[in-house]
Write a structure and sequence with these properties.
The complex is a heterodimer of chains A (117) and B (113). Chain A is an all-beta fold. Helix content of chain A is 0%, strand content 52%. In chain A, strands 2, 4, 5, 6, 9, 10 and 11 form a seven-stranded mixed sheet that branches. A four-stranded antiparallel sheet of chain A has the order 1-3-8-7, with no helix packed on it. Chain B is mainly β. Chain B is built from no helices and eleven strands. In chain B, a hairpin with a 7-residue loop joins strand 9 and strand 10. Chain B is globular and about 45 Å long. Classes of the chains: A mainly beta (117), B mainly beta (113). Chains A and B meet through strand 5, strand 9 and strand 10 of A and strand 4, strand 5 and strand 10 of B.
């Protein structure tokens, strides 16, 4: 079945540094990937849509200069949290769209727990 | 503006009984709906979906019912097992939204043995 690998699964960084999170589709090509953020006891909030070879589309209220998204290939999208601050601490999840699987084709990564100290 | 609502934050069910998780939506432009299961510190896993042209879809112990006139869908799990204990998210999508999914807030299901 479709597998999406997300790395790292957790990271602790100092305030002011940058952190990169990778999302890879292992056995299918994903022209579209999504990045979500989940706060404790809340739903998944879509941050941006990442399209291979083009600029990401950010949701309203998401700072594109802070959350840099790169989708350089059909199997890899990266999210870089720049100049991280404690309020950026959250659970970040990516999702890749596998069109061959129809409506069940949104495969999620295992998530990254970011803690900024 | 919550377009997808899961009004029950939690549900507790005895093992072997039926679990019914509910979801309401406000936008008639949604044309398909999905249910995901999520464990803590993990990504959601797909359970079952339904297109707006159907009113029922069944897959093993999981059945999703869609009532378009009421803008309501439900996930039935029969029989419930302790391993079903997780957070269940309802999600909706549609051509209007491109590929994007809109998620509900989730319902914590606890199946007691």
């Amino acid at each position: 079945g479709a597998v999406v690998s997300q790395h790292p699964s957790w990271v602790i960084c100092k305030s002011g540094t940058s952190v990169k999170i990778e999302c890879r589709s292992l056995d299918f090509q994903a022209t579209t990937m999504f990045w979500y953020r989940q706060f404790p006891k809340q739903s998944l909030m879509l941050m941006a849509t990442s399209n291979e070879g083009s600029k990401a589309t950010y949701e309203q209220g998401v700072e594109k200069d802070k959350f840099l998204i790169n989708h350089a290939s059909l199997t890899l999208s990266t999210l870089t949290v720049t100049s991280a601050h404690p309020e950026d601490s959250s659970f970040y999840i990516c999702s890749a769209v596998n069109r061959d699987r129809g409506r069940g084709g949104y495969t999620f990564g295992s998530g990254t727990r970011l803690t900024v100290v | 503006d919550q377009q997808v609502k899961q009004n029950s934050p939690s549900l507790s069910v005895q093992e072997g009984r039926i679990s019914i998780l509910n979801c309401d939506y406000t936008n008639s432009m949604f044309d398909y709906f999905l249910w995901y299961k999520k464990y803590p510190a993990e990504g959601p896993t797909f359970l079952i979906s339904i297109s707006s042209i159907k009113d029922k879809n069944e897959d093993g112990r999981f059945t999703v019912f869609l009532n378009k006139s009421a803008k309501h869908l439900s996930l039935h799990i029969v029989p419930s097992q302790p391993g079903d204990s997780a957070v269940y998210f309802c999600a909706a999508g549609g051509q209007y939204y491109g590929n994007k999914l809109v998620f509900g807030a989730g319902t914590i299901l606890r199946v007691k043995s």
